[in-house]
Write a structure and sequence with these properties.
three-stranded mixed sheet, about 25% helix
Length: about 220
């Protein structure tokens, strides 16, 4: 089997935004019990539209008392970074002194770019390499984390639906998804990540909704 991924023939398939998120599913004022997908915030009662969307995402982060302090800082950084750099959020999660290399990524990255496709699109996007180290960018902004702390923050933000974090790996390629129907969630062994800021989190204010978080709320 050809294990090349991130190529035009076998692009990375971005995890869908409606993929179920465990942490936000515990907020009973946001998710109905037993919901098997992410919530549709556009239909959420009591969530308000801000006339100025510029700050809605940040407000949704800083008012969530369930978020760790590190996740708040990383979430705010990602929002500001995207707003000021106008580029796709694709990052190397390796330690400072390492650089991720895989001969199967984009067929050896001989053309210096990787292809990513969304579930709703038939044409992949082209993302240029090299991929920047997120730990280094955070350090330059005064946010000091180690690799495992950073990955934990990204998982937390993903599970609270602020971002959709897709690991760039063969298991998340279009070819693998068509064969198995499965996706690989971000984990402690992840090295490359594509991050999409959830659109509805930038439009719907959830400032009064986080207090309904129930740690023991479980689903069958």
């Amino acid at each position: 089997m050809n294990k090349n991924y991130g190529t035009q023939e076998n692009p990375i398939r971005r995890i869908q935004d409606n993929f179920k998120r465990e942490l936000i599913s515990r907020c009973k004022d946001i998710c109905e019990e037993g919901l098997e997908t992410a919530p549709d915030l556009g239909k959420l009662r009591g969530a308000s539209d801000y006339s100025d969307d510029e700050y809605t995402f940040i407000t949704n982060i800083i008012t969530n008392q369930q978020l760790s302090h590190n996740a708040v800082r990383v979430g705010c950084f990602l929002y500001i970074y995207e707003a000021t750099n106008f580029e796709e959020l694709v990052f190397d999660l390796s330690d400072f002194n390492k650089k991720f290399k895989d001969k199967n990524l984009a067929d050896g990255t001989s053309d210096d770019f990787v292809y990513v496709i969304s579930a709703k699109s038939s044409q992949p996007e082209i993302l240029w390499l090299p991929i920047k180290h997120l730990l280094k960018l955070l350090m330059d902004a005064g946010i000091m984390l180690n690799r495992q702390e950073l990955i934990a923050c990204l998982i937390e933000l993903h599970e609270f639906y602020y971002i959709t974090a897709t690991e760039i790996c063969y298991e998340n390629s279009l070819e693998h998804y068509k064969a198995t129907g499965e996706v690989k969630k971000l984990g402690s062994d992840s090295n490359l990540v594509h991050i999409h800021l959830t659109t509805s989190m930038q439009k719907k204010a959830l400032t009064t909704k986080w207090l309904s978080y129930t740690k023991n709320r479980m689903y069958t």
